[in-house]
Specification:
single chain; alpha+beta; seven-stranded mixed β-sheet; two-stranded antiparallel sheet; 9 helices; 34% helix; globular
């Protein structure tokens, strides 16, 4: 199986939590592909000092898609055990242990997306994924999520979005070679307007918004946020 990691935020550029080693040891970074995804800023973290990225059903429904990165794993995956090893490594890079549901507050879930054209046995993988993820409390994550908006992840831990589309049309064939994509779905805390976001971004020591801009991880709100930042 050809497997990739969909990165929508700081996993791409952060230098903490062992992330540089994870990127070096697990990803073929030079083969990264920009793709369209339904993302927006929506989670206050770091005690409210950083406003981070989430998947958003509202963004998907309005087709206000953002830009993130699909990056292949270094190794071809031969079985579900190897797939779970990579999912656990991703969880660890998020600052967690190796659970697929992250943190004592269930603030994120390692989710899976299947290429609908792939010939792999999706049923077997999906069944084992559901068994593994429900060792923890996915229901708690989903119930918290729906208070903000319906989640883009189902009860089996599968990401409920369309197959990824490359920003550069000539790279779509490369995207379509992937059988499975892993990603982190974080729990939103609520959606701030650009002025509120800019106020946080201006004092954020992690420079989350500014680093996303620097590295090309973008959302439909970015122009308005930058305008408000220039006023601060």
């Amino acid at each position: 199986m050809k497997v990739g990691i969909l990165i929508i935020g700081s996993l791409f550029w952060d230098t903490e939590k062992g992330r540089p080693d994870w990127r070096k040891n697990h990803l073929v970074f030079k083969k990264k592909i920009k793709v369209s995804v339904p993302i927006r800023y929506g989670r206050l973290s770091n005690n409210g000092r950083t406003y981070t990225m989430v998947f958003s059903k509202g963004v998907q429904e309005k087709s206000n898609l953002g830009i993130a990165y699909l990056i292949p794993l270094k190794e071809i995956i031969h079985n579900t055990d190897e797939l779970f090893n990579e999912a656990q490594a991703l969880s660890k890079a998020e600052g967690n242990d190796t659970n697929l549901i992250i943190g004592h507050t269930n603030w994120a879930v390692i989710s899976i997306l299947f290429n609908p054209k792939s010939s792999i046995d999706k049923y077997e993988i999906e069944t084992k994924w559901e068994e593994n993820i429900n060792k923890n409390d996915l229901t708690d994550f989903l119930q918290k999520h729906i208070k903000i908006e319906p989640p883009l992840i189902n009860k089996k831990g599968v990401l409920d979005i369309s197959w990824l589309q490359a920003i550069e049309e000539e790279q779509q064939n490369e995207v379509d070679l992937f059988d499975i994509i892993l990603t982190t779905c974080t729990l939103p805390t609520g959606y701030l307007n650009p002025k509120q976001h800019a106020k946080i971004a201006n004092t954020d020591l992690r420079k989350y918004f500014k680093n996303n801009q620097k590295y090309g991880i973008l959302t439909f709100e970015d122009d308005e946020i930058r305008t408000e930042l220039n006023k601060v």
